Amino acid sequence: MRVLVAEDHASLARSIANGLREEGYAVDLTFDGDEALRYALDNPYDCVVLDVMMPGKTGWQIVETLRRKGSATPVLFLTAKDTVEDRVKGLNLGADDYLVKPFAFDELLARVRAIIRRGHNRPSQMLKIADLEIDTAAKVVRRGEQPITLSAREYALLEYLALRSGEVVSRSEIWEHLYDQNDETVSNVVDVYIGYLRSKIDRDHDLKLIHTRRGMGYVLSETP
Fold first, then answer.
1. How far apart are CA 130 and CA 144, in angstroms?
2. Taking residues 175-188, what's their average pLDDT?
3. Contact predicate 54/7, CB 8 Å
4. Contact 178, 2 (CB under 8 A)
5. In the chain, which residues fall in CATH 3.40.50.2300?
6. In this predicted model, what pLDDT tens digit does every residue of 136-152 receive, in sequence order?
7. Cα separation of 121 and 185, whole Å?
């Protein structure tokens, strides 16, 4: 999953970004509202963590612009403004959630996870495809009764495919959601990681769940 963190308090912003990266997220980071809006319009983020008061455009202005331009990217506001009026304003403009500073990182992480799941119409933290189970909070994967050990990148790919289970996902979409703007990894690495996943998810099972749609991409599904 790819997240934009826009926060003008540099140490807090870097702390959030580093924490999210440790959890396996691809993270773009900015301290400026104008740049945040440009990033949010140009990239397919799964979530934007957005400070309300920043140099340039405010978080409120950014959300208002995104929604006016038809962007449904989920937004979590971070702010020191804790009045009911401020929370109502942010939510009415189109934000998905609101977290008041100071906050615990674990709470921010839980809210980011929930926002991303809702954005993909998967409200439960448990994702199931046939006998494959993915606990998105604990990052635990099982097929039947067998636990499956995945690298951080393998897990991120599997979770993204599971959130979009039944949909064909192109290589470029996968790459855009798993790598941030500073990553120099080439897009054909997606095929390599699909191979890794198949060896761990499908190899020992008659029912294959990862399917190739030639010329289009991949789909995680019970049906070929």
1. 9
2. 73
3. yes
4. yes
5. 2-119
6. 988 999 998 899 999 98
7. 29
What DSSP letter does each residue of 31-45 carry, written as one string? S-HHHHHHHHHHS--
Q: In 10 A of CB 105, how many CB atoms? A: 14
* Mean pLDDT across 162-168: 95
CATH number of 126-220: 1.10.10.10
The helix (H) or strand (E) run that includes residue 133 is strand 132-135
Percent of the chain residues topping a pLDDT of 90 = 72
Global confidence as pTM: 0.83
Q: Read off φ and ψ for residue 168, nearest 5 degrees.
A: -80, 125
Residues of the chain with CATH 1.10.10.10: 126-220
Strands 26-30 vs 2-6: parallel, antiparallel or unpaired: parallel
SS3 of residue 47 by DSSP? strand
> In whole angstroms, what is the distance from residue 174 CA to residue 178 CA?
6
Positive or negative: CA dihedral 61, 120, 136, 168: negative
Long-range CB contact pairs, 197-204, < 8 A, 24+: 197/150, 197/154, 197/157, 197/158, 200/148, 200/149, 200/150, 200/154, 201/132, 201/143, 201/148, 201/158
Class of domain 2-119: alpha beta
